[in-house]
Specification:
The chain has about 300 residues and is an alpha/beta fold. Among the domains are: about 110 residues; about 70 residues. Helix content is about 55%, strand content about 15%. It has 6 helices and 7 strands; from the N terminus they run αβββββββααααα. A 7-stranded mixed barrel has the order 1-4-3-2-6-5-7. A hairpin with a 7-residue loop joins strand 3 and strand 4. Helix 4 runs antiparallel to helix 5. The longest helix is centred in the last third of the chain and has 53 residues. The protein is elongated, with a radius of gyration of 55 Å.
């Protein structure tokens, strides 16, 4: 009888303890401290989800807010993978939120990263025939790198084809001929370097002499101008003198005729000196090199 009483007490104690634990768990669950409510979302990936496993974390800006509960092919489009995401209730999943597939460190373990979600964007809700709201997705880092490398390789191949097209056999031969001609010209210049140097020295001296001659030409032109003015004044003075002596010399016809011829000669001389002065002002080199002959016209 005594052992039966002991087993009964132990059984009652176990039942009471179990009921107390259940009550505590229910109380904690109702308080929400250890019990969380999750919302379900879909995300359709257009790339391989290799490395992503069930219960993989879902992070929102680096904060873990849920996990992956389902991975399957999209029944409507087998080229896509449908992910079922369980995300804590109250997480601000907006219409502009984007889900990206990322890998963690060097382990290669994949997880889902949620980005975006501006303040003024409305919350995401289910639409169309979808049972749950669908979070938009974007290409992962590996996909972007693969696309960039593919584009880079295509550009390199195109550049290589263009270089090969330019440097074909004919162009290579022409390039070799050009190099040979350049080499021949270089050797010729090196062989005649002394003559070239002497020619440069002569050209320098010629320029110096031309500069001196130009300086002298300026003074000569000024003197010629002054001479023309003096001759012109002399002609004018002779004209006035001829007018004054016309009556006095009227008795001697030959004297008046001589005076008129002298005045005409002085005027012609003044005009000639004036033309020479103008020509020297326009082209001082004419004094050294003469006037340039006009170029022959068509048919000449």
């Amino acid at each position: 009888m005594e052992s039966k009483v002991n087993f009964t007490v132990v059984g009652l104690f176990a039942l009471v303890l179990g009921a107390a634990l259940i009550a505590i768990l229910l109380w904690l669950g109702n308080s929400g401290k250890y019990y969380k409510v999750y919302d379900t979302y879909y995300a359709y990936m257009n790339e391989s989800v290799s490395g992503l496993n069930l219960n993989a974390p879902v992070k929102y800006r680096g904060v873990e807010v849920g996990n992956v509960r389902g991975i399957s092919l999209d029944p409507a489009n087998p080229e896509r993978v449908r992910l079922v995401l369980k995300i804590e209730h109250g997480t601000p999943i907006k219409e502009d939120t984007v889900a990206l597939l990322r890998t963690q460190g060097l382990t290669g373990i994949a997880y889902v990263e949620l980005t975006g979600g501006s303040v003024h964007s409305p919350l995401l809700t289910a639409s169309g025939k979808e049972k749950y709201p669908v979070i938009r997705t974007g290409p992962s880092l590996l996909v972007r790198l693969d696309a960039s490398l593919t584009s880079l390789l295509a550009s390199i191949n195109l550049m290589s084809d263009n270089v090969n097209a330019v440097l074909d056999e004919d162009n290579r031969r022409a390039f070799k001929r050009s190099l040979a001609q350049i080499d021949a010209v270089t050797h010729l210049l090196a062989a005649r370097s002394a003559s070239i140097e002497a020619g440069m020295e002569n050209a320098t001296k010629t320029l110096e002499h031309s500069a001196l001659a130009s300086a002298e030409l300026v003074s000569l032109i000024e003197r010629a101008g002054r001479s023309a003015e003096a001759v012109e004044r002399l002609a004018n003075e002779a004209t006035r003198t001829a007018g004054e002596t016309t009556r006095a010399a009227s008795a001697v016809p030959g004297t008046l005729q001589d005076m008129r011829l002298l005045v005409d000669d002085l005027r012609d001389l003044s005009a000639s000196v004036r033309r020479v002065s103008d020509q020297l002002e326009r082209n001082p080199n004419a004094l050294l090199f003469g006037n340039r002959q006009p170029e022959a016209g068509p048919g000449e």
